[in-house]
Request: fold
Amino acid sequence: MPKVFIAADHTGFLLKNTLVAYVRDALSYEIEDMGAQTLEPSDDYPDYIRPCVEKSLATPGSLAIVIGGSGQGEAMVANKVTGARCSLYYGQATAVGPIDAQGAPALDGYDIVRLAREHNDANVLSIAARFVTEDDAKEAVRIFLESPFTADERHVRRIAKF
Reply:
């Protein structure tokens, strides 16, 4: 089982604390809380997100979860770290009708998380705390941690082009 690193700013602080307990106690992963350790309304998310992602990438086989209000800034910071492939979970939006020329079926937010792991070998998940329920965040984290990278040749080829 991979080690999981987790970090959040003030907006994601309460959800982070809930997810730390969930990942450790319900899912039985080793987890390292990279902060914030106290609720500071004026803190800056890069101060927590970058060290979390860097430590995760320096720990072979580990994954990281980062949390903020929209998750956007956290994902941007994470993706600036060489080797990070951060996907953003912002809730249970569902596509209506076919989504591509091949008539692919509609997908939901959990599919985004699963496909990011399976096709893109995402190693960081950013969660939009202001847009998700606690239960949705828990399910997204479970899917993220339990979905393996398929290592299909086409996905490996595409990742190599990053």
